[in-house]
Specification:
Elements lengths: L3 H6 L3 E7 L12 H8 L3 E7 L12 E2 L9 E2 L1 H14 L4 E11 L2 H9 L2 E6 L7 H6 L3 E4 L9 H12 L9 H5 L18 E2 L2 E2 L9 H19 L1 H4 L10
Parallel strand pairs: 1-2, 1-6, 5-6, 5-7
Antiparallel strand pairs: 3-4, 8-9
Helix pairs in contact: 4-6
The structure holds S-adenosylmethionine.
Length: about 240
């Protein structure tokens, strides 16, 4: 639930998704923490059906690619009208096109977006979107990974989920966010819970020693070891350890 302070401090984070499948929303975003936050008014969601701005009796939103080739391309005139309508309804949102050609989505980008007023997300379909629309409406292109999805809706959900969990009041303990993967530029250390021994495997003794400094040192070393093994590229920009208790 929102604290009095957080609800006074800012309007709910707003997401407008432009899609030809508005019925896909909120979908999984209606469940668990993110869904509770939506129901509690910590963020707002508008799913706009691009077909409402489509042409003719069939509400056409796409056409054949200039220069030939397979598939269809989403028309700039239809999308331009849809974006302008969304802009007028909820001004000031960051305009993003989910695209495999975009900059990779990172935790740093997620944090930046979560700190703003919200996002307008264009979910592409078919072969993609006319380049003139991307240029004219200054859409920032963001990719969720080096693979091709059939549409941008699931990519939009990934971005929304990652942002919403950072909004004030959505997660209980803010401290748990600080130690997560990518926060210090490293992957997270291994986690353990009870029982102390399971199928012959013990929780590392240091974690039950009660010595907080030793626990912190062990966690940092494990985070560095895992990052070196799995994502050595991250080590170049990792933050130095926090020496505070
Ligand atoms: N022809 C495009 C290409 O080769 O880059 C792929 C188009 S894809 C079938 C249809 C839509 O899915 C894209 O316009 C985009 O909105 C979305 N999409 C696919 N993969 C994505 C990814 N990795 N990240 C973000 N959005 C993606």
């Amino acid at each position: 639930m929102p604290t009095e302070q957080s609800s006074l401090a800012r309007a709910p984070w707003h997401v407008t998704v432009l899609t030809i499948f508005p019925e896909m929303f909120p979908g999984p975003l209606g469940a668990s923490l993110v869904g509770t936050a939506l129901a509690g008014g910590l963020w707002r969601l508008s799913a706009v059906n691009i077909r409402e701005f489509g042409l003719g009796r069939h509400r056409q939103v796409d056409d054949t690619p200039a220069g030939g080739g397979a598939g269809m391309v989403m028309r700039p005139d239809v999308l331009g009208t849809a974006i302008d309508h969304a802009d007028a309804t909820t001004p000031g949102l960051k305009r993003i096109f989910l695209s495999p050609r975009g900059a990779p989505l990172t935790q740093a980008k997620v944090k930046e977006l979560a700190q703003g007023p919200g996002v307008m997300l264009l979910a592409g379909r078919f072969e993609g979107v006319d380049q003139r629309l991307i240029d004219a409406r200054q859409l920032e292109e963001i990719s969720i990974g080096d693979y091709v999805l059939s549409g941008g809706e699931i990519a939009a959900m990934v971005l929304i989920d990652a942002c919403v969990r950072l909004l004030p009041g959505v997660l209980g303990a803010d401290a748990s966010l600080e130690e997560e993967s990518f926060e210090s530029g490293l992957l997270e250390y291994p986690q353990y819970t009870k029982p102390r021994e399971w199928e012959g495997r013990r929780v590392p003794d240091i974690l039950v020693s009660g010595d907080h400094q030793k626990v912190a040192t062990w966690r940092r070393a494990e985070a560095e070891r895992l990052t070196a093994e799995r994502r050595p590229d991250l080590l170049r920009t990792a933050k130095p350890p926090n020496r505070d208790p």
